[in-house]
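tool_call: predict_structure(chain=1)
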Amino acid sequence: MKIRWLSGVLAMFFVLVVSPVHGGSIKINGSTTVLPIAQKVAEAYMKEYPEVSISISGGGSGNGIKALIDGTTDVANSSRFIRDAEVKMSVERGAYPVPFAVAYDCIVPVVHPANTVTDLTLDQLKAIYMGEVKNWKAVGGPDAPVVVISRDTSSGTYEVWDEKVMRKQRVFPGALLQASSGAVTQAVSRNRNAIGYLGIGYLDSSVKALTVNGIPGNEETTLSGKFPIARPLFMFTRGWPEGDILHFINYVLNPHKGQKFVREAGYVPLF
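tool_result:
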């Protein structure tokens, strides 16, 4: 099944109304996966509309959605869809959260470049993260202990990994939890025995991307649905956006503006 079906499902949230820029400020909070996209788009937007100020912070999808519910952010970046309980809390506080798919992504397992392993199956990944595989030799690698790096539970990337790889089995207590995608990159790049997972926008030469079930994580396999750990990325607003926030969301979704920066950030554009 192709992941592009989400474009149709979420098309109802695409903003077609052109709104004026009023010259205020926009607060964005949430996913560190979506952070590079938000930063690039915001930088370009403020150059084009210098009368608008945009502040961006990370902290994870859960924290971004919590800030949206609390009314302390205008836009919540999230690498997962909002939970029913979070929708309920938001409505109770007077605002329905509105989702906008802004990009596609896949979550790629990564190891230190010196590691000879190049491919792992979903079952092998699950066994590693459950603590059942303790030595790389068991999966065709060197005779060395496996150091498991994972995201914390407030991370949308963690939740997608939990759903698609762990299949609701718990990551074992010995895993080293990191608060951001950047921290995962650093942890894996500094430890020859480490394994972690990252959105494709965070892949660089300091870590080695693994294939999963023999399939590389890239734009083609993400859109086709062949890569088994793929997902859409979201921005949520507190109620239907208006004014500067509406104008910014329009900019993000514009194929010739915001979506251009999605690819520059290393992710997969909607169009």
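agent: Residues 1-14 have pLDDT under 50 and may be disordered. Proceeding to next step.
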